[in-house]
Amino acid sequence: KSAHAGRHFNEGINAIEGLIQLLNHLPQWKKNIPTATINSGELHGGTASNVVPGQAFCRINARSFEPNDLVKLKTLITKNIDTIQQKNTAKLSLHIETIKKPKLFNKKTESLFNQLKKCGEAHNICIDWEESGGVSDGNFLSEAGLPTIDNLGAKGSNIHTKNEYLTISSLEERINLTLSLLNYYNQNPKL
Questions:
Q1: Residue 92: which of 21, 143, 152 has the closest Cα?
Q2: Average pLDDT of the segment spanning 158-168
Q3: Percentage with pLDDT > 70 across the chain
Q4: Which end of the chain has fewer CB atoms surrounding its CB within 10 Å, N or C?
């Protein structure tokens, strides 16, 4: 509940302080679910230093290779919210924007990856596998049972930061790699 920080301080309910109490549990969430990555990547609250902040929010990105981890995390956060609300008058709630099941490196994806490696070798491109937990549209394809590999695109670095860049010279290389993979499956449609 917003209020003037001088004249009506005691009438306010500080939403930021309530959120901080919840986020203090973050190390415990990580300890209880060691196979997940949990990142509090965005935090907002308040309007001015002379106003008790009536609203605050935090966006959390959680990823895991274990399908039940995100359910466990939701349960932990909900329990922590309930406990905090019993002691604090700040109203806390959990809003889930999306839940995407993890992309699994199954036999179908392994077969696709091995063929991609062969196409890479034909173009003198080293192809390696790196897990990210992934929260891309590829997760939906994987959940539907399709073999899924992300990042056939151009090379670059510092992904999702203000220093992210694309190596322009890699565009042609990656186009040729993708065409090579598509041509292989076009010539071998029963695979």
A1: 21
A2: 90
A3: 96
A4: C
